[in-house]
Structures are given as C-alpha cells and as structure tokens.
Amino acid sequence: MIRRHIIVEGRVQGVWYRQTCQEMAMAEGVTGWVRNNDDGSVEAALEGDPAAVDRVVSWMRIGPARAVVTLVNVVDESPRDEQSFRVV
Length: 88
Prior knowledge:
- The protein is α+β, with helices and mostly antiparallel strands.
- It has one domain: Alpha-Beta Plaits (2-Layer Sandwich), CATH 3.30.70.100.
- The chain contains two helices and five strands.
- The protein has a five-stranded mixed sheet with strand order 4-1-3-2-5, covered by helices on one side.
- α1 packs antiparallel against α2 (50-60).
C-alpha cells in the first residue's frame, strides 16, 4: 500500500478532470480524494496498490480530452487507510 500526493497544473479545471480522475481511481481500486485549488490547479491524494496508483498518476499527466496538463508534482506520503475515493 502506498500513498501519493499530487498537484496538477495547466488547464485542468472546467474540463471534467476531477470527475474523470475519480472514475479512473475507482476503476483501479485506488482510494483518496481530488479537489480544485483556488490557483487553478487540481490536487489529489491517491492510496492503494503501487501499480494501480502509478496507473492513475500516469493518467493524471494527460487528463481528460479537454485538459492541457503542464506540470505534475508527485510526493510520497504515509498511507492513511482511506476507505473510498471522493471529489472534495
């Protein structure tokens, strides 16, 4: 079990990024959360099997069709035993 904290910059708000991220995470069995930040970025915490978390992070580097991702910052954290994935 791993946990990663991610900040995604670019055109990532208003393009269904959070909802699609939730769908991707749930399909991979990854728990955590995703939210919009006031500066226009999207922030997320992903927790689960290392390979599954890596697949979601790889998707986050591209995002949904209308997104333009310019920067992704990923930091490892200690797992917190998240039970679901939610849009905050």
